[in-house]
Amino acid sequence: MPDTRYATIVFENPGPAIDDKAGGHLPSDESRQYKARRAHTKSRKGCGTCKIRHLKCDERKPTCGQCIHSDRACSFASSPIAPKSPLHRGWLQAPGVPSQLPADFLNSYYAGISEIWKKIPATINPMELLDHFMHTTHHLWIGGPSCQMILQQHGPRLAVEAPYLRFAMLSFSAYHLATVRRKTKKYELAGAIYYSCALQSYSTALHNPGAADVDALLACSVLLAMIAYKSLTSSPQRRGLSADKEPVPNITGLQVMTGFSILKSVPALQPKLGQSVMIGQCEKDRPSSLKSVAEYSEKRATVERLERFCNVDKRATTLEGVHDVALSSLRHLMLSEVGDDVIATYCFSVRGFDSRFISLLERKDPKALLLLCYWYVMGARIGQWWMVDSAQLDGMKLLNFLRENPSTEIQELLKFPLASLESV
């Protein structure tokens, strides 16, 4: 018989103390209630960082939720990820994402690349960046809704045979993490290195486009455009300009954002562009018109003043009609609701900035600078992470420069950009 001298009974609502030797009695089975044993809630396979901090780990790999929230280095990210089904069959299936990647997908990132890889921080795990790119779906951060859906669901599959897209995805993901985790400097460096690799590989593909997948090229051009636009804010030359100096128009950013036009200029790609799935899907993001009648009337009046101003001396210039395409795109943007669906329209509107318009910007033409200022204002109002800082910076530089112009028409037309930038 087991020794029960020291056994105790735990009651949910214990009454007075019971002394059996003193003639007391135990309660009946109906009156006593036992506490149920609590289920085990601790993490047995958590990361080392959470164990040291005595926190419950959600065991998500390559970086657990606790480490993401506290911006700490997760031990999962620095250790090999154990293959799970269906990796043993040679494929990686991302949860909730219908993309399949070969088991040697990450190894292909390093094939044929020079000494540049030695510059990547040892703490950067490409799998962490890929996981962030594919599975960060709780908010919009990769262009418009259709663009993000296509790139997250089909980008990894397209990237299997397209190194330029692989590097662009890793760079975009690293730059976004650098924005989210500002205290962690390694992501900014990784983003710059992957971006350099993407440009190098993308340029090689454009010189030999016969075997290239047009949707992979388009996806890469979209990511490179957003990265280039975002990276302009980190330029000391641009950040250091004072308000009383002439602005440096964002020519580089505008040229990079015309990636679709660059692809159209490649003869071997022209027949393929008509078969692109990505173009058709992205064009589904059509912004709705302004719902407020008062706001619509006010912005329409502003657009009409812009059109009259830009056409004042139209017959006197050799660049007749050069502002027309840019004005048409700007009208569509200004009369649309500012939201997720307008991002694709904003990006495609840069096609109105052709070589003639770029030439006017380089010559500091007031009309072209005014239209560009309006375009930046719309970008700042949309506010996606890769555009908002550059749009605010360049928009304010142009605004300050144009405020020195003696034209009363320009001063009147600057009221909308000024009010918009101050409210962002």
From TrEMBL:
Lineage top rank: taxon: Eukaryota
Keyword terms: Nucleus
SUPFAM superfamilies xref list: Zn2/Cys6 DNA-binding domain (SSF57701)
The keyword Nucleus appears for this protein: yes
One Pfam family, short name: Zn_clus
PROSITE patterns noted in UniProt: ZN2_CY6_FUNGAL_1, ZN2_CY6_FUNGAL_2
Keyword Nucleus annotated: yes
Gene Ontology MF terms in the entry: DNA-binding transcription activator activity, RNA polymerase II-specific; zinc ion binding
PANTHER family assigned to the protein according to its UniProt record, in alphabetical order: STEROL UPTAKE CONTROL PROTEIN 2 (PTHR47784), ZN(II)2CYS6 TRANSCRIPTION FACTOR (EUROFUNG) (PTHR47784:SF9)
Name of the featured protein: Zn(2)-C6 fungal-type domain-containing protein
Species per Swiss-Prot/TrEMBL record: Rhizodiscina lignyota
Lineage: Eukaryota, Fungi, Dikarya, Ascomycota, Pezizomycotina
